[in-house]
Amino acid sequence: MKKKKYLYIAITISIILTGGFISYKKYTNYLDSGLYGKPLKQINAYDILPYDKKITPKVAVIDTGVKLDNTFLEKSNIKQEFTDQISQSSQKGHGTMVTGILTSNGNGHSNPGGLIPKSNILSIQTGTDLGMTSKQLIQAINIAIDNNVKIINISLGTTKDTPELQTIIKKALEKGITIVASAGNDSNSINYYPAAYDGVISVGSINDKKEISNSLNLSNINIFAPGEKLLTTTANDKEQDYFTGNSAATPVITSIVAIMINENPNLTNSDIKSILISSADTKIYKNNEIKIVNLKNALKKASVENKKD
């Protein structure tokens, strides 16, 4: 019997209080943590995020699905599709946390909320919270292509580089889709796919001190963003909680990509990747040069790139 290759979700969920998730009603100090306050200032985004304009480009989130009845997602525009019957049994924990960073109720300052709350999200539920097969990921990318999305958020990865996965990633890129994918959390020498593929924007996580959150293969990470203790939605319909890891940082970059395309629809996926890197802040970490996203700089460059007269 042929052995299946599984993708494992690249996350760490920080449980702040003993006994489980923190209810938003009990949570009072979000202004000093997560995406609120200092982290937004660190990426030059405090006056821009959350973005209050309608987002035109459709964003696909390939993950474990979204708990659509979460109170904090009731105003969000989310459509959900499934790759197979097994995927419909997912607990939707990881996918709900990823999606909540993109779009959820609140203005992000006086109330916690998503970074692009007026966005159009296609949640493609595949696998379960334990992982998924390469075949399921490929099916999900095909669904995204068929639905004419402009951006795909993939907050997961596999160490297995397969011709089939390469082919579908290449197809999506050739269709003009921007793919944002998380690097793995657990090794400084292993490549994670699709993040390691050319053309994909690979994302790593930093904390509120601009320190890298975990050991990584830095040679394959294009851009870093806040990804430690971000307050977001959970699979419990009335709760939010902290979310940590490269999976959490990835939708931060996806939000920025969506804003860039919204401001300048003429940008290509190669333009977007180049602008994110060239406009980023540079930091030396263990003799490696890393790039930390700078939203204002990125938008300034994006506004003039490929503009038609």
UniProtKB/TrEMBL annotation:
Q: Which GO terms describe its cellular component?
A: extracellular region
Task: Tell me which Gene Ontology terms the entry assigns under biological process.
Answer: proteolysis
State one Pfam family annotation. Peptidase_S8
Q: Which UniProt keywords apply?
A: Calcium, Hydrolase, Membrane, Protease, Secreted, Serine protease, Transmembrane, Transmembrane helix
Q: What are the Peptidase S8/S53 domain coordinates in residue numbering? A: 57-283
Tell me yes or no: is Hydrolase among this UniProt entry's keywords: yes
Q: Which PROSITE patterns match?
A: SUBTILASE, SUBTILASE_HIS
Q: Which cofactor does it need?
A: Ca(2+)
Q: List locations, semicolon-separated.
A: Secreted
Q: Catalytic residues per the record?
A: 63 (charge relay system), 94 (charge relay system), 247 (charge relay system)
Source species, domain of life: Bacteria
Gene Ontology molecular function: serine-type endopeptidase activity
Q: Where are the transmembrane segments?
A: 6-24
Q: Does the keyword section mention Ribonucleoprotein? A: no
- So what family is this one in? Belongs to the peptidase S8 family.
This protein is called Peptidase S8
Organism of provenance? Bacillus thuringiensis
What is the taxonomic lineage of the source species?
A: Bacteria, Bacillati, Bacillota, Bacilli, Bacillales
